[in-house]
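ENTRY TYPE: protein
CONTENTS: sequence, structure tokens:
***
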Amino acid sequence: PKYRRNNYNMNQQEVKLSSILLGWGVGLYLLSYFLQSLLSQDENSWFVSLLLNVSGYATILLPGYLCLRYVRDSGYLDRGTGRLASVMRLLYQGRQDTIEAEELISQDNKVSRTALQDAAQLALCGVGLQVSYLTWGLLQEKIMTREYVDSAGQTDKFSDAQFLVFVNRILAFAVALLAMMLRAQPRHKAPLYKYSYCSLSNIMSSWCQYEALKYVSFPTQVLAKASKIIPVMLMGKVVSRKTYEFYEYIVAVLISLGMVAFLFGKGESSRSDSVTTASGVLILIGYMAFDSFTSNWQGQLFSEYKVSKFQMMAGVNLFSCLLTSVSLLQQGVFLTSLVFMSQFPAFVSDCVILSLCSAVGQIFIYHTISTFGPVVFTIIMTIRQVFAVVLSCVFYGHAVSATSLIGIFIIFFALFLKIYCAYKIKQRRKAGAGGVKSGSSGGAGVIKA
């Protein structure tokens, strides 16, 4: 009978899907584990670490991509039934239905706001990002550069950046789930696999950020972060086909120049930092590229699927936890990190506070990007770098020169220039819209114009 034949075909497709997931997943896991055992003798090389991390991520991403190709080419998403088909639709198709009246109204939906309300929200985002990530930056520097002392007086330094990324992401994922349970959310329609792109780029940018400190000085790393405004704008053109006002380019250049002056002024007063190497420059280029892609891809998801910031946070961190946990298991870092935590309790408290700051900061990140766009977010985070270096000078005794003060002035001048230009353009557009309305209201108005 036709029903049995269709059911048999569905069973065949499900068996093939399962074989793709399990077969490729297990095979790649074993291959990555074997590769890790071969390259463990050169574990201090950043390229070897990168290769091992990427091989771990491929254990999840490659089978997922093959399944995506199969379900699209075979039509399984249209004809499949049962739990496996539901999971595949959730991963690769999302919700296709459109509802006129949403049963769950997101508080992130854009509504008409006054200029004062916009300014208040921008101030809230700025303060939230500054406090959470300034604290996060101080703890990051402490964890990666300072030695911990146990009760017996023994000292040791924690060096695995990927474990810190995992701890940050798993706590952020828990915070996002809790927020989604406490607050009404819009109907989620985005395919889950869409989050894997910005999740991977976010992991890679975080890894580059930590790894670069082994090869470049701290001012050089901060300078690279500050200069990413221009890559973000270029990536916005490539990913989202966005256009920017001329003054936004001027602001981006001024902020980058201000950061150059500030950081080179800091370098004049302190020559004890590590020397910049070619490897460090390559890692920093990778950081800027991955981080620029992350913010623009998230901005595109916000505009295309109207997801809330907590849905975005949960989706990205879900894949981040999955990818980093598999890689850590393959490299055997979980056990060594847990041993380090048991030996140094101060490291545990620092990790918890670091992760809480990261989770709160991510909420502000997604809210800022969804409300004001990736360029505004990047400008706020660039200014944060100035305060981060100032705090580093206060906590670690670095001096601030006159050149650094000039750099701070340039940055704040650029910020006020952006606010002024944006306000004038907004007022001009309102005046133009009012003129069109008055011109179309009657014949006299047209003749007068």
